[in-house]
Amino acid sequence: MAASASASPPRRRHSHRDDVSPRRRKRRASPSPSPPRSPSPGVDADRRRRSRASPPDSDRCGRRRDAKPSEEKENGHAKPGRDEDGDNRPPRRDRVSDGEDGVERRRMRDRVSDDEKEEGRRRRRARDADDEPDDRRGKRDRERERDSRRHRRRSPSSESGSSSDDRRHRRRRRDEGSRRRDDRRRREDDGDERRRSPVKREPTPPLPPPPPLLPEMIPGRTGGIYIPPFRMAQMMRDVEDKSSPEYQRLTWDALKKSINGLVNKVNATNIKNIVPELLAENLVRGRGLFCQSCIKSQMASPGFTDVLAALVAVVNTKFPEIGQLLLVRVVLQLKRAYKRNDKPQLLAATKFIAHLVNQVVAHELLALELLTVLLENPTDDSVEVAVGFVKECGAMLQDLSPQGLHAIFERFRGILHEGEIDKRVQFLIEGLFAIRKAKFQGFPAIRPELDLVEQEDQFTHEISLEDNLDPETNLNVFRANPNFVEDEKAYENLKRSILGAESSEDEEGSDAASDDDEDEEESDEEDEEQMEIRDRTETNLVNLRRTIYLTIMSSVDFEEAGHKLMKIKLEPGQEMELCIMLLECCSQERTYLRYYGLLGQRFCMINKVYQENFEKCFVQQYSMIHRLETNKLRNVAKFFAHLLGTDALPWHVLAYIRLTEEDTTSSSRIFIKILFQELSEHLGIRLLNERLNDPNMQGSFESIFPKDHPKNTRFSINFFTSIGLGGITESLREYLKNMPRLIMQQQKPESLESESSGSESGSESSSAGSSSESESKSSSDESDRRRSKKRRKRT
């Protein structure tokens, strides 16, 4: 039985396409109860030999994946090692009966149908791939590859090993996923067909034009819609009824924008210009807007608190109700921040109150009451706020209420001794005591540029923190006024009385007829002609210097540089800048270049203006010669020596040099030494001596060769001798030799004059002399007599 089994060839596997007889189909349907056949040892050896001789590669395994399991199962055992997917799995069990073969065939049939479905899906995806973007296409390709890889990993052997429940669950999940993908693809196909269908749609009718902007269309409390200024002015001109609510709303919005703009741009330099513009607006109607804008601006930028307080102080002198309303709102804001523990808002409110106290808009009792509340139950934040408040208004409290400030500092001392607060706050208190000791130096009450109101003209408001205050928030919102026209006229009259006749003249001029407009235009043109614009940033001057420097440094020779520099358009008075830049470029070089001397000589020869400017440069450089380094000093001296040697610069500039020991320094002596040494090299000692001895130029050389005193003369001679130019001092040496004789000659006429005056006075004094001699003789005789008497008594 075993031999027959081993000799029989393996049976061929029939696929579902083969023509199977009914008898064989019936035999397969009814499994036989016989035990499974075991393969013979010869077959196993033959199979092992074939597997060693030709191991299956990956391609062959992939192509024959569907055939191998069936063949192995036909032979009655599974091949150990790798299965269809190439994974290391345990060997499969032998087929028990023909019933399992039928199950296997059905399984393979399902797999073939799945492969056909997957191929159809791929074709549809390839057809739809042209309409998809690149990024979506790449994403879908990756998903498809992942699905196909998962599908390949599934094998009948693994499914056979799993339970029926797992197979059913996996099949249901696969069917649901395929159904979901088919529905999504069907929806996409329907959308593509709808997009590609040539159905003509009716064109949509054009939108009607927007209605014209009317005043009653402006919604909201703040206007809602932005209207350009010219459009707003046109709308206000078109409105005929000046008392209508629409016109009042337009004027309200314009007033709000104007007040906000003026308050936001005020600073210490332009506050004097902002105040008239602010008073020109209707502050009685917009007092709520003004207070709201001031508080918001102060909260946004606390550094401008003193400026806003000064602005409020000026407005308070004309409209005390506005100052009181602002103070009430600031106090309410302070109380609200104190209850909410809002430290930033509390700091801003206390700073505003401090500067209002400095401007005498608020009474000093409010400041003392606030400090008492802050220091009653001290915490780190409350003490810090109190310290900042005292820094801001301590100088004013020191003048207005020194005893109250002393009590506040005693409370600070008590808090410091208790030591219950943080170390940082303790250091703040100690710093405050140091500021008080320095009499609040560095924390002035009012800056000089913000001291705009006299204290006698100011209205001071007394408000307590315990009062019931009304902020009057209804003033911030627009409300129609039945007496709008009368109120506007009344404010116009009030504005004329405040601002004077200039405002009334301006208003009359703005309301005048076309003839007046023409006159104003002519006057404006005249004013524009008379107005001069001055560039205080010196931007044009810096650009000119840059151009001159680049031209000088980029030129090959002095002729090219002179040609380019002459093309530069210089305004009258800017010739000096060219001379200064030429001298600066020369001084910055490591060694002197003759290029600069030739360029300066060319400009001096072209225009006398440059000659005069170089004379000024010589005087300036000699006066500041001690500031220059030795290298710069040498280059400057050689530059001017070149100009003097070529007669481009007149020699009378040497009159500014005074060669004495007292009037010179070491730097100036080096400058003079290099200057004259260069002149001697350029001209020669003989020609230089002739120039210096020119009788027409002696007045200019007296300061270099002084003859006023022998000491100065010797100093000049010794100086030129030490630098090797003693030959130019021959005339000065002769003058020094003849100086005693000249002094004697000068003294002789003086002695003759003194003798003549003495003879005249001698005759007058002879009589007096004889009388005095007689008196002296008589007195001497008396003294001799007394001496002789004394001698006699002794003997």
From TrEMBL:
Q: Which residues form the MI domain?
A: 543-659
Q: Which spans does this entry mark as compositional bias, Pro residues?
A: 204-214
**UniProt cross-references to Pfam families, sorted A to Z:** MA3
Per UniProt, the ranges with Basic residues bias are: 786-795
**Chief location category:** nucleus
Quote the biased-composition stretches of kind Basic and acidic residues, using this chain's numbering. Answer: 67-121, 134-148, 174-203, 774-785
Name its cellular compartments. Answer: Nucleus
Q: Name one GO cellular component term.
A: catalytic step 2 spliceosome
Q: Name one GO biological process term.
A: mRNA splicing, via spliceosome
Family to which the UniProt record says this protein belongs:
Belongs to the CWC22 family.
Protein name according to UniProt: MI domain-containing protein
Q: Where does this protein come from, organism-wise? A: Miscanthus lutarioriparius
Phylogenetic lineage: Eukaryota, Viridiplantae, Streptophyta, Embryophyta, Tracheophyta
